[in-house]
Request: fold
Amino acid sequence: MIKQVFVTAAQQLLPWLVPAVVVAWLLDLPWLLVVLLIWVLVRRYLNLYTIVAWLKTSMHSDDAKDPPESTGVWGELTDGIYSLKKANEVERRRLEANIQYLEHSFSSMSDAVVMTDVGGRIDWCNASATRLLGVRLERDARQYFPNLVRSPRFREYYGAGDFREPLVINAPHDESIVLEIRISRFGKGDRLVFARNVTRERQLDQMRKDFIDNVSHELRTPVTVLSGYLDTIEPMSTMLPASMQKAISNMHRQTDRMRALIEDLIWLSRLETVPVEDDADPVDVYQLVKQLVQDANEVAGMDRKISVTVDEDWNIKGCYKEIYSAFSNLVFNAVRYTPPDTKIRIIWQKTNLGGELRVADKGAGIEPRHLSRLTERFYRVEDSRAESTGGTGLGLAIVKHIMMRHQGELRISSVLGSGSTFSCHFPNSRMQNKLQQ
Ligand code: ADP
Reply:
């Protein structure tokens, strides 16, 4: 490249420099050379000046203006700059077209879309943003967005910067509208905010919950009465013909199932609607697990091989009834879904992140395709098996809810043929050391 520049410069200079030197030498006029050099310098300066002027004007204009006529190195320089600018311009037009396309698509959306810069100032928003969030582009452009949405929860969510889960709030100017807000980052920390009107979905969800709640409550009394009568009748049924005895025992089993189902549905609905109430005293996990083993053996109707390892120093701050319900579901499942001589381990230990209660069994295990669905309501690995074990299909959904209510989570792992492990993880904020109590 440098070599090429020198060759071009030499090609330009030599054709007149050599004759000029020869003429000046022949005529013995050395000042002629000096005059010539000054003239060359002035021309170079003028060239440079016109290029700088062209650069300045084209920098401030959107179109790439034709470069000034120049020859040699200057020509190559201006041609280079000109083609770079042209390429830039093409790229800029392409990006502008993309942005316009996006803005056009977003404009016609019923969801609110707001783009903010890294400092949270509004760059753009669509018409739905006015309807749902109360921001208008003409009025609010470059304003700090979180301050314009009159919702402290939104401001907190926007400021915290953790957008893995959406935020659900009431629309700032109309409490009857429920919005689901999702935020994603793009570019250099810019944010794209979507607000979706989920009022109808929420209403339907609430209607579904209310319906299940009402049906469960309505059924509770008749089923309890039926079950009570059957409790009394069954021992006396030995006087009846064998076919009647079988029918009564079957009815008794089925009403018990219905009762368990209704109780679980009511419990689940309560967990979904009523906020968790921590007991004044922390939950003594050691005592709880001791009770649990006793109850599990009762459910099994025999002494099962359950080994227990409990770190007695650590308790849980939370609701005893809920925590018992979560742990018992796991332990009773381990008892119900494994053969009688299967080893079951219950471990309660402190971890770096908090506390973990693990229920591990050496049963048949669960196929991987079922694992992610186990906490869905009424999901069972095998229908017939669940029926014979008397499960309602709601146990793990209940555990998941209780763990969420205690800011924890339920984790499930299983290897077909080797067994399953269900563990409840509590955060440090829920842990209480007995010695420091
Ligand atoms: P259920 O009331 O039917 O027990 P759960 O929600 O507690 O409902 O469990 C869902 C399904 O997960 C069960 O039907 C069973 O198939 C499977 N399951 C739960 N625990 C175990 C376990 N320890 N071993 C094998 N399968 C299990």
Remarks:
- The radius of gyration is 39 Å.
